[in-house]
Each structure stands twice: as C-alpha cells, then as structure tokens.
Write a structure and sequence with these properties.
It contains three helices and ten strands; from the N terminus they run H-H-E-H-E-E-E-E-E-E-E-E-E. By secondary structure, it is mainly beta. The chain is elongated, with a radius of gyration of 18 Å. It starts with a helix and ends with a strand.
Length: 236
C-alpha cells in the first residue's frame, strides 16, 4: 500500500494550485457568481457505490476538483483567470444493512491557502442483481485563503445500474449552501463577515469503470451550472 500513498502525495504536490486572486472593488451583487464557482470545487462527491460489493468492502480514492474562476475574474476591477485545483483523498467503508460511510479531506497539507473536508452516508433501501435505489446524505466544508468559507450539505435519491464492469448512477436532490466572506473583499474593514445562504436543486450523474481492484469515476453535477470531477479508486 505504500506506493499508493506515494502516488497520492506526488499528485498533490504537482497539482495543488491556489493562485487565483479575487478582483478588487467587488460588490455584494457579485456574491452569487462567486458562490456558484467555488461551491463546484468544495461540494462532496461520492465514489463508486460499494453497496453491490462484498461485505465490509473498503475503497480509497483520489479526486481532482476544478474551480473555474473565469466568471469571477471578470467581476469588479477584474483579475487574472487562474484555474484552481483541489485534490481530495477519500475513504469509504461498506457496513451491514446496505449502509456505506465515507469521509474526505484535501491533500493540500502544505498549502494553507485552500483546504476542504467532509463526508457522506449512503443507504441502499432496494437492492437487485442489476443495481438498486439508494439515498445519500452528504456535507462538506472548505476555505479559500481565509477570504471565503463554504459549508455545504444536502441529500439525494439515486438509481444505480451495474452492467458488467460499468456502474452508472443518476440522482436528484438538494444542496444547502452557506458562504462567509471576508468584508475586505468588498472594501469594508469595519464590519463583520458577510454571509450568504441559499438552497439549490442538485442533479448528478456518475459513470464508473471497474477493473480488478481499481475504478475510475467521472461525475457530472448540475447546480445552476454544470461542472465535473474525476476520481481514481482502489478497492479491497
């Protein structure tokens, strides 16, 4: 298992990026645009479902999330558009009664400008040989340069389909987002942090290819806008 840890740390070293700087002269009307961009990176994603795997199966994963800052960079006085990458390590375990629990945390141990953590619980309430139906609850928290803090939690109803080595999952649910901004972003230094909270509908589609003990998962999410992520997993 040592070489797996080495690969995760190596990828983290080369891919960690928190180089984006917020524009100046922002106004509070810009907040929804910022929230939509950064929530896409901090949202908790679930790995390939273990509900159809052997009893007490375990999965460790490396996920890369991209925060597209193009729209944010055009706000206010404008700034250079720098893509932000978040690499997260996740651990998931199948438990009795078709329950699966998982946790995740960013690999940015040497980069204090960006970090995230969270977890999920998944329950398969109708299981068949071809897949089944499950409900998932999840939550996540993230911080960017101590200027933006994000808390996200939600739930979804999913249908899973297993065809040979291909696993497909589609679901719908909700996301509750609470974001806290440093007031200096808006030119204010004498007031408390600015908070923004909103409920969104959330749709997701996940496609996994499983070979031997490995799996690669591509996930697409729709929360006002479409965004995607990729995850590499090892099952044992």
């Amino acid at each position: 298992m040592r070489w797996h840890a080495f690969i995760f740390l190596l990828l983290s070293h080369f891919l960690n990026a928190a180089e984006f700087d917020f524009p100046t002269t922002l106004i509070e009307a810009d907040i929804p645009t910022i929230v939509r961009s950064f929530n896409s990176g901090f949202l908790a994603r679930t790995p390939m479902s273990l509900l159809g795997q052997a009893k007490f199966a375990t999965q460790i994963s490396l996920r890369v999330n991209l925060i597209d800052t193009e729209k944010v960079s055009r706000l206010g006085s404008q700034s250079k558009d720098e893509e932000v990458y978040i690499q997260e390590f996740s651990f998931a375990k199948k438990l009795p009664l078709n329950v699966e629990l998982g946790v995740h945390a960013s690999l940015s141990m040497l980069d204090r400008d960006i970090n995230s953590f969270g977890g999920f619980a998944r329950w398969g309430f109708k299981m068949y040989s071809w897949g089944g139906f499950s409900v998932t609850g999840h939550g996540a928290s993230g911080n960017y340069k101590n200027l933006l803090g994000t808390n996200l939690y939600g739930g979804s109803l999913n249908m899973d389909l297993n065809v040979w080595l291909i696993h497909v999952s589609a679901g719908t649910g909700f996301i509750r987002s609470t974001n806290t901004f440093d007031p200096t972003l808006f030119g204010n230094t004498g007031q408390p942090s600015i908070s923004y909270s909103k409920m969104y509908s959330h749709q997701n589609v996940k496609l996994s290819y499983n070979w031997d003990r490995y799996a690669i998962t591509a996930q697409g999410d729709w929360i006002k806008e479409f965004f995607s992520s990729v995850m590499l997993s090892y099952l044992f």
